[in-house]
TrEMBL record:
GO terms for molecular function: 8-oxoguanine deaminase activity. Its EC number is 3.5.4.32. PANTHER family: AMIDOHYDROLASE-RELATED DOMAIN-CONTAINING PROTEIN, AMINOHYDROLASE SSNA-RELATED. This is 8-oxoguanine deaminase. InterPro entries: Amidohydro-rel, Metal-dep_hydrolase_composite, Metal_Hydrolase, MTA/SAH_deaminase. Keywords: Hydrolase. Residues 58-421 form the Amidohydrolase-related domain. SUPFAM superfamilies: Composite domain of metallo-dependent hydrolases, Metallo-dependent hydrolases. It is an enzyme of class 3 (hydrolase). Belongs to the metallo-dependent hydrolases superfamily. ATZ/TRZ family.
């Protein structure tokens, strides 16, 4: 029996159904699950468990990242892609990504996941939609297993190249029959539907301007057959809306609905440009949204109507998006940015720090179909972030809301399924200097 006792927390922000906040309490983890929350708890056997003193820590659920392109950690701040809108940005980067292979996918995923873990993220999804030079989805799955993060990789795809009216170069697209065959392979090999699962696979044709209607429809049918989730980019900016109207004769919401892309098992990234009817459609159908505020700022896409979505009952989670369009991967910073953007567009009371933290934790977990994560309650998975508030970031703060209003944005400790992934501010499961050295070598090779 593996146990960890988190003792005497300054505050436990549970995000449970009553949103309780507890002072001076303990939290006992047993075999990857939260066994007890209360006063004066003890390990079952003092010699077999670990004790973490949390007197100077705010304890929250591990944060959830609902949208990423991990491979893009190898293309941060690329000249020529620093100041472009989405389509021009993609066209600058596609030829660089076309030179990636299995090692680039693996190392960039290690770096991206480590960065997320340090910012308190215990569960991340990933959208890998290009497979050049023998790259495969399992390159990223191995990286997640090694670091120990809970992982929802999605088998993305692009099938409509430039010559057929799409945006990506023909060299980066795959045949649709091959895509569907590989989707079946990765679901059968890696998807674990059980509670507490560390790996759930989703299907994720890239975006309306890079795949056909047929592939969107076939992927939806396949996902329902296999019982896995669906994910794509939708309504990201004005170019995206114009493409939809010009090529499909309708707005993205109608396109998604006609092809089976609404429902509890679907989540769409960005959704910056959803109109009232589309927000209503998403709320009625329980379709989820991955809100990516920093990327939306970086690419000049706009401010997603998160206040209106939440008021209408749409499920919203947060995404850091790929590190070519962020260019960071700090999920706590993303939560702060989401709060600030709603305030700048709707007023100072448009989103509280607590609501932003809720979106970053249980909100994201609900979008990914994980009610067993994103909240601290007995029986839930032991995905737990401890934030040290004795440092400069939060010196002088009066309330746990300071985590979003002031800081820190990096954790002291992070547990995933009861295992320590971050310990005293360092990744405990990887040799990070070695990983970063290899990442730097790969960047130099790509630049050459
Ligand atoms: N922010 C992003 N949007 C996208 N659309 C698309 O087709 N690819 C991307 C991407 O990588 N990032």
């Amino acid at each position: 029996m593996a146990e960890i006792l988190i003792r005497n927390a300054h505050t436990i922000v549970t995000m449970d159904d009553s949103r309780r906040e507890l002072s001076g309490m303990d939290l006992l983890v047993r075999d990857g699950v939260i066994a007890s929350i209360g006063e004066n708890l003890a390990l079952t056997r003092a010699d077999t468990g670990d004790i973490i003193d949390a007197a100077s820590c705010v304890v929250t659920p591990g944060l959830v990242n609902t949208h990423h392109h991990l491979y893009q950690t190898l293309t941060r701040a690329v000249p020529g892609a620093q100041d472009a809108l989405l389509f021009g940005w993609l066209q600058r980067l596609y030829p660089i990504w076309a030179r990636f292979g299995p090692e680039e996918m693996f190392i960039s995923a290690q770096v991206g996941l480590a960065e997320l873990a340090l910012s308190g993220c215990s569960l991340s999804s990933d959208h890998l939609y290009l497979y050049p030079n023998g790259a495969r989805l399992e390159d990223t799955i191995s990286a997640a297993r090694e670091i120990g993060l809970r992982f929802h990789p999605t088998r993305g795809a692009m099938s409509i190249g430039e010559s057929a009216g799409g945006l990506p170069p023909d060299s980066l697209v795959e045949r649709e029959a091959d895509i569907l065959t590989d989707m079946i392979r990765v679901v059968d090999a890696f998807h674990d539907p059980d509670p507490g699962s560390m790996c759930r696979v989703g299907l994720a044709p890239c975006s309306p301007f890079s795949v056909s209607r047929d592939l969107m429809r076939d992927a939806a049918l396949l996902a329902r057959d296999k019982g896995v989730m669906l994910h794509t980019h939708l309504a990201e900016n004005d170019e995206d809306i114009a493409y939809s109207e010009a090529n499909f004769g309708c707005r993205p919401g109608q396109y998604a609905e006609e092809l089976g892309w609404t429902g509890e098992d679907v989540w769409h990234a960005h959704c910056v440009k959803l109109d009232e009817a589309e927000i209503d459609l998403f709320a009625r159908t329980r379709t989820g949204v991955a809100h990516c505020p920093c990327s939306n700022c970086r690419l000049g896409s706009g401010i997603a109507p998160v206040r209106r979505m939440r008021d209408a009952g749409v499920k919203v989670g947060l995404g850091v998006d790929g590190s070519a369009s962020n260019d960071s991967g700090n999920i706590m910073a993303e939560a702060r940015q989401s709060m600030l953007l709603q305030r700048v567009s709707q007023g100072a009371d448009a989103m509280s720090a607590r609501e932003a933290l809720e979106i970053a934790t249980r909100g994201g977990a609900d979008v990914l179909g994980r009610p067993d994560c994103g909240r601290l309650a007995v029986g839930k998975r032991a995905d737990i972030a401890l934030w040290d508030i004795s440092g400069i970031d939060s010196a002088g703060s009066w309330d746990p809301a300071a985590l979003l209003l002031a800081g820190p944005t990096r954790v002291k400790h992070l547990l995933v399924e009861g295992r320590q992934v971050v310990q005293d501010g360092q990744i405990a499961t990887l040799d990070m200097p070695k990983v970063i050295e290899r990442q730097t070598q790969l960047v130099h090779r790509l630049m050459a």
